[in-house]
Amino acid sequence: MKNIKARFIIEDYQHYLNDVQDIVRAFSPYLILDNSACDFLRLKHFYADGVFTAQIDGTFIPQNQRQIDIDAVGDIEYKKITKHFLKTFIYDCLSAFFGIKLPYGSLTGVRPTKLYYELLDTQTDPKSILINDYRVSPQKAELIEECVFSQRGIYKQDTANCDIFVNVPVCPTRCNYCSFISAEYGKVKKLIPEYIEKVKTEIEMIKKYISEKGLNLRSVYVGGGTPTSIGAESLSSLLSPLARCGVEFTVEAGRPDTVNDEILSVMKDNNVTRISINPQTFNERTLKTIGRAHSVKDIYDSYEKALKYGFDINMDLIAGLEGESLLDFVYSIEKVVELSPQNVTAHTLSIKRGAAIRERQKDMGGNAREMIDFAHEYLKKHKYKPYYMYRQKNMADNLENTGFCLEGKACVYNIDMMEDISSVFGAGANAMTKIYKGQKIERKAHPKHIHDYSKRDIDSLTFNFF
After folding, report:
1. Angle at CA 119, nearest 5°, toward 117 and 124?
2. b/e burial code for range 422-431 (CB count within 10 A of at least 16 → b)
3. Is 121 inside a domain boundary?
4. DSSP calls for 214-253
5. Beta strands 312-319; 343-348: pairing state
6. What's the pLDDT tens digit per position in 386-406?
7. Is the pLDDT of residue 437 over 80?
8. Across the chain, what does the average pLDDT equal?
9. Residue 353 has pLDDT above 50, yes or no
């Protein structure tokens, strides 16, 4: 099928711009937005006498029109209804023109489960609405529902609940698909001691605030980057103010080459309960291609060492890595299941502008859908159940990331964070603090880079927000 480059012209309703453009972008690589292109796609709307009319035309697509009866019952409700109508209208037109059905239909948000919960408040069968009104495939609607059901007993919307997230944006090396703001350890090693002291001060402020406000701390998560790449002594210092929180306590030990007995002992001594060891693939060739400085043997060695300490372990795999076939990915899934970690996260490759691989792999379509379908089926067959999910822009085959767990091993932090149902207090560079106020989330982002964060006065960080 020939790719089309086109300008997207939206007349008279710029407040819909991001939402409707996301639908158009979802049809990449078949339709690519390009402001300099000769071809164009144009969207218009009209509202009169209680009827909202949308019209689409362009140099390559026949004119189409659709209407909906709607009372202008208020700006918020009016925009909500018309936005959904427009997104589905555009999706239907482009789907028919290209002969393509996207797995999530007209859904473009990060959290498909959030819509399911909203529908659940007023509807008896949200899954059918996802399929019929939003054009979500039956398979993906089932996945959304399974995640919601798996969250029972953990999911709780409560302004008194909170979690702590500590960010250590440091890795041993940089993977070629990565767009996170994360520095190679060798380049920031001298900044680490000062950085840790400032983060520890911020953690103490967060703990004091939680205590004074009588909030209920549900989990602690130390992520990155790869926190275990800063060495045992630095890691011990960082974890020490969190050691007595008495809740689920996760540390990302994602790179197997950073996991050794000294690091594992430090985490155990500080009451860490859950870690991530993330192979991404069990193929030696692919590890070298993506820029990982470890071997498949290192994955097995680090996992076996971690087992002795009694942590719950999560392992990540990525579908769609450069040069991998379906059989390569099947092999990795089978090897993960043989190890039987408590959690497995099946990611779909998402390539953003900051990734080194971007120019070499612009067309990410292909076998990612087959890979993810296999992963879900195989994990369920071996008693893993999906319990949280999220989507990102530029994901191969318009798919998703899904966390699976064995019975009783769901990660509280992942649910709270992804569902936006509790406050999350962020500490460290590029951390985000989110204050949950029921129907409203207020956010404050920290400086992105370690050196910028370290230069800031502590009072100008998190707690001038409250």
Report:
1. 110
2. bbbbbbbbbb
3. no
4. T-EEEEEEEEES-GGGG-HHHHHHHHGGGTT--SEEEEE-
5. parallel
6. 999 999 888 888 999 999 999
7. yes
8. 91
9. no
The domain of 386 spans 161-459
Kindly tell me the burial class for residue 310, based on how many C-beta atoms sit within 10 Å of its own C-beta (0-12, 13-18, 19 or more).
Answer: exposed
Q: Are residues 388 and 269 in the same domain?
A: yes
Is residue 375 within 8 Å of residue 317, measured between CB atoms? yes
The answer to whether residues 96 and 172 belong to one domain is no
Radius of gyration over every alpha carbon of the chain, rounded to an integer in angstroms: 23
Instruction: Give the count of beta carbons closer than 10 Å to the beta carbon of residue 18.
Output: 9
- 45: Cα separation from own chain's centroid: 33
- Could you tell me if residue 156 is inside a domain? no
Q: Find out whether 58 and 41 touch, Cβ atoms under 8 Å.
A: yes
Q: Pull the structure tokens for residue 384.
A: 């893993």
- Dihedral Cα 213, 203, 174, 330, nearest 10 deg: -50
Tell me whether residue 6 is exposed, middle or buried, using C-beta atoms within 10 angstroms of its C-beta: 0 to 12, 13 to 18, 19 or more.
Answer: buried
Contact 39, 6 (CB under 8 A): yes
% pLDDT > 70, the chain = 92
Count the neighbouring beta carbons within 10 Å of the beta carbon of residue 437.
10
- Residue 338 sits in the same domain as residue 199: yes
pTM value is 0.92
Give the CATH number, domain containing residue 393.
3.80.30.20
